[in-house]
């Protein structure tokens, strides 16, 4: 009886899946041991192509749906059109692709090539000149890229790009000079991406930014720089990011945080798990005048926080995490205690004497 029920359930799920795929235009071939794409696999109604977890070594040529008009305006919504919108070849063995791979597609929104074997040699000036004009999300994380030629990702070819994921790509240098034969990402590499809102660069070996890495009128809102080789806050590059709201500098070898130009737009700042950060001195974070959420946690060497480390406490600050550091005391003026709605102080070796007596009343 159980076998019969499972068989019926399996058949029902299979039928439901096929119906669902037809309705919303999904074409899923993940985990299918495919190494080449057959033309008859591509339904004209398939808008989402999932070829993740296969054995492709080259990004194949993707044909456009016959139901995607040549002059279709990709920024508008029309249920009668079916264009290739989202393509994933994540977790294959892709090491190269050409401008022909995407030349035929018209309205592509998401391209996921994460967890492949793409290196810098796979990219050239023509790589993204076709098929990606309307691209909004480009996901390249976990590829051994190392460096990118400066003209690979430029605004004339991807003016709508909103999210770029280059995390865990072995990137080493974003400055304008080669040092010790480090791989090189040149000036203005992100300068023309005026629509970019999310940039993920975590888990690389980035040591610094050229001051012109970002466009002056950049729309960037989220910048993730976790687990790189930054030794200081890259204020000169951040100065161009007037719309930046979230910045994560965790797990970098930063020894000292110094005051820089006013960065009033940043609302969320993370300085977690920084092994050599021993102190936050006076005005060290005073540049971040618009903070709403601050996380300084897991810093095993952090023993002291100056009462004026934020300068004049931001009137916007609501959430603070100071967990799992080496703090034994904290000044009564260090934070605007009454306006906080979230506070975490656990995991510190607090020395409960008269100097911390104020905390009982404040909290």
From TrEMBL:
Pfam families: LRR_6, LRR_8
Record SUPFAM superfamilies: RNI-like
Keyword Cell wall biogenesis/degradation tagged: no
Keyword annotations: Leucine-rich repeat, Repeat, Signal
UniProt cross-references to PROSITE patterns, sorted A to Z: LRR
Coiled coil spans: none
InterPro entries reported for this sequence: Leu-rich_rpt, Leu-rich_rpt_typical-subtyp, LRR_dom_sf, LRR_TM_domain-containing
GO cellular component: plasma membrane
Protein name: Uncharacterized protein
């Amino acid at each position: 009886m159980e076998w019969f029920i499972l068989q019926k359930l399996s058949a029902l799920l299979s039928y439901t899946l096929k119906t669902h795929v037809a309705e919303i235009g999904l074409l899923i071939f993940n985990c299918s041991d495919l190494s080449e794409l057959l033309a008859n696999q591509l339904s004209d109604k398939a808008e989402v192509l999932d070829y993740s977890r296969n054995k492709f070594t080259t990004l194949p040529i993707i044909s456009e749906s016959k139901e995607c008009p040549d002059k279709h305006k990709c920024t508008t919504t029309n249920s009668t059109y079916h264009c290739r919108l989202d393509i994933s070849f994540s977790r294959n063995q892709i090491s190269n692709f050409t401008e022909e791979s995407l030349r035929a597609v018209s309205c592509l929104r998401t391209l996921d090539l994460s967890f492949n074997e793409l290196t810098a040699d796979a990219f050239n000036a023509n790589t993204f000149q076709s098929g990606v004009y309307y691209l909004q999300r480009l996901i390249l994380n976990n590829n051994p890229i190392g460096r990118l030629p400066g003209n690979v990702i430029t605004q004339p070819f991807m003016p709508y790009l909103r999210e770029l994921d280059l995390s865990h790509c072995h990137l080493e240098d974003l400055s304008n000079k080669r040092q010790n034969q480090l791989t090189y990402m040149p000036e203005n590499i992100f300068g023309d991406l005026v629509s970019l809102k999310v940039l993920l660069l975590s888990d690389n070996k980035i040591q610094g930014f050229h001051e012109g890495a970002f466009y002056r009128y950049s729309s960037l809102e989220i910048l993730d720089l976790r687990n790189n080789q930054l030794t200081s806050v890259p204020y000169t590059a951040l100065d161009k990011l007037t719309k930046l709201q979230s910045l994560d500098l965790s797990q970098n070898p930063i020894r000292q945080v110094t005051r820089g130009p006013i960065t009033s737009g940043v609302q969320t700042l993370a300085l977690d798990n920084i092994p050599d950060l021993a102190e936050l001195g006076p005005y060290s974070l005073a540049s971040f005048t618009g903070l709403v959420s601050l996380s300084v946690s897991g810093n095993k060497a952090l023993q002291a926080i100056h009462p004026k480390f934020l300068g004049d406490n931001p009137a916007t600050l609501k959430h603070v995490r100071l967990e799992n550091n080496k703090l034994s005391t904290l000044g009564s003026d260090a934070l605007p205690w009454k306006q906080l709605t979230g506070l975490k102080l656990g995991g510190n070796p607090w020395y409960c004497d008269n100097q911390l007596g104020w905390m009982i009343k404040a909290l």
